[in-house]
């Protein structure tokens, strides 16, 4: 257990795995721990009241720093790049020009490696037949610091192991963004400079203590990340309806119209007015791969088209809907941009109205055909509840004999210890039909320490579509009917 730490930078990169970083008072990462939630039954990483964190492996990673910033930069709110310039003394080897390249190759691990800093410099004191190879002072403090292989290489090239010293000027341009921010922000506070990239926009989620330095942080992120010309900060939690953020520009141009490429498809949209998440590209691809030429896809919460457009490019027919007029507008724009406007019909309706309108209208004919029908519902905060719109959708119609029932891909967030069961139960309640053993569940991603995004996939039951649409009685009877059927099957 790590006691008294604050889970400052901690990420879960796979479903049950987490990585925890603990920082020292100076803000350095001093511990890295990783573990598996599975083995910690009943314990929640962020839920321990006594501020302890269970871990299975602890790896101290205290590395001395190459650059110690001038103390005057601490507290700076407007970026003064010159104030970061500093001269440090680094060890070096005197190497004859004839073997220079070979020596540099052999000393890859010990030589200085930093963007914009030369590894080889002129030897001012000596003749032009020699150069100095600069070494990393954190790795080399005396000739005995060289590894056996390195020492042997030096001997074979007849290069003396004697260390020389060189005054190296480090400027703002040679520093990493974390080094600049660690030097400026109050000591001991988190300086995480993580951001997501959407085209030319870097978007950050600054903490309260970082807000005083927001413009400086924005400028540093822009300087250190080629291609980023605008840095924004999310000003609130996600907008409840359209899933977009209020944003404040911290640095750079105020152009929010981003152009991105995902899985080979280009999208354009106003990032401040629509939903876009670069972390969903694998999920978009996973679902789109299930779609074949000639299939039909109903995308109930389509956004700007990351399921709809690639599926249309594969030759499927798409009915794509979004309640946000801006998403609808950019969806249409992206259809034109990708030349699939003839394959996509766009709608600007509420999800239930879309299911009970265009979807209901098209479904009977499609169910008599042989091509697959997919319904994609990616609004994880609410989509499971929207499944009730399918109850009794085709109540007064005659079920076709060889029905070609739609496959639903419905997303949901879960904070439950057993997210698979949780989302299946919630989907079942909403449909009024037990989906257990009749669906598959896919873990999409971990959105917060104890919050998973899941996708439930199932064939829309005939009983749901053609059953009674009466809310409560329908629920009861469908559940009963279907569990009776199940019992009969098992019997
Ligand atoms: C999580 S985003 C997903 C967008 C897109 N499918 C994607 O994967 O990136 C959910 C979308 O649902 C839209 N939305 C929210 N409430 C809605 C509703 N009641 N009916 C239809 N669309 C809605 C939002 O505007 C947003 O574009």
TrEMBL record:
Q: Which UniProt keywords are given for this protein, alphabetically ordered? A: Cytoplasm, Methyltransferase, Mitochondrion, Nucleus, S-adenosyl-L-methionine, Transferase, tRNA processing
Would you tell me the Gene Ontology cellular component terms?
A: mitochondrial matrix; nucleus
Q: Where does S-adenosyl-L-methionine bind?
A: 284, 322-323, 350-351, 378
Q: Which PROSITE patterns match?
A: SAM_MT_TRM5_TYW2
Q: Where is the SAM-dependent methyltransferase TRM5/TYW2-type domain?
A: 195-462
Top-rank taxon: Eukaryota
Q: How does it assemble?
A: Monomer.
- Supply the name of the protein: tRNA (guanine(37)-N1)-methyltransferase
Q: What organism is recorded for this protein?
A: Neolamprologus brichardi (Fairy cichlid)
């Amino acid at each position: 257990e790590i006691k008294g730490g604050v889970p400052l930078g901690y990420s879960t990169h796979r479903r049950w795995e987490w990585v925890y970083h603990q920082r020292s008072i100076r803000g350095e990462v001093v511990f890295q721990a990783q573990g598996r939630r599975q083995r910690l039954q009943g314990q929640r990483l962020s839920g321990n009241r006594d501020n302890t964190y269970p871990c299975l492996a602890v790896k101290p990673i205290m590395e001395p720093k190459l650059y110690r910033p001038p103390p005057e930069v601490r507290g700076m709110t407007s970026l003064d790049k010159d104030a970061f310039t500093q001269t440090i003394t680094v060890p070096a080897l005197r190497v004859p020009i004839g073997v220079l390249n070979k020596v540099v190759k052999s000393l890859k691990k010990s030589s200085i490696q930093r963007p914009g800093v030369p590894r080889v410099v002129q030897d001012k004191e000596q003749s032009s037949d020699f150069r100095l190879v600069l070494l990393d002072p954190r790795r080399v403090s005396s000739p005995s610091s060289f590894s056996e292989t390195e020492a042997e290489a030096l001997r074979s090239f007849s290069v003396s192991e004697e260390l020389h010293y060189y005054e190296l000027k480090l400027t703002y341009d040679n520093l990493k963004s974390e080094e600049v921010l660690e030097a400026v922000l109050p000591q001991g506070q988190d300086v995480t400079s993580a951001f997501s990239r959407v085209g030319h926009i870097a978007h950050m989620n600054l903490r309260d203590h970082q807000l005083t330095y927001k413009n400086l942080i924005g400028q540093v992120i822009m300087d250190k990340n080629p291609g980023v010309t605008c840095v924004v900060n999310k000003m609130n939690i996600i907008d409840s309806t359209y899933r977009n953020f209020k944003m404040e520009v911290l640095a750079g141009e105020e152009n929010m119209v981003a152009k991105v490429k995902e899985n080979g498809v280009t999208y354009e949209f106003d990032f401040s007015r629509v939903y876009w998440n670069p972390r969903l590209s694998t999920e978009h691809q996973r679902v789109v791969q299930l779609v074949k030429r000639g299939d039909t896809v109903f995308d109930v919460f389509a956004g700007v088209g990351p399921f709809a457009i690639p599926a249309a490019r594969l030759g499927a027919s798409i009915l794509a809907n979004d309640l946000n007029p801006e998403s609808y507008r950019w969806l249409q724009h992206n259809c034109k941009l990708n030349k699939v406007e003839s394959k996509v019909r766009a709608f600007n309706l509420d999800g239930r109205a879309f299911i009970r309108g265009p979807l209901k209208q098209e479904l009977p004919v499609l169910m008599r055909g042989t091509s697959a029908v997919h319904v994609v519902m990616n609004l994880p905060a609410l989509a499971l509840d929207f499944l009730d719109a399918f109850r009794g959708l085709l109540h007064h119609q005659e079920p076709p004999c060889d029905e070609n029932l739609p496959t639903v891909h419905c997303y949901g967030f879960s904070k439950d210890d057993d997210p698979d069961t949780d989302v299946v139960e919630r989907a079942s309640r909403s449909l009024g039909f037990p989906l257990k053993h009749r669906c598959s569940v896919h873990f999409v991603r971990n959105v917060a320490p104890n919050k998973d995004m899941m996708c439930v996939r199932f064939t829309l039951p005939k009983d749901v579509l053609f059953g009674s649409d009466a809310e409560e009685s329908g629920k009861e009877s469908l559940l009963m009917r279907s569990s009776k059927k199940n019992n009969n099957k098992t019997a």
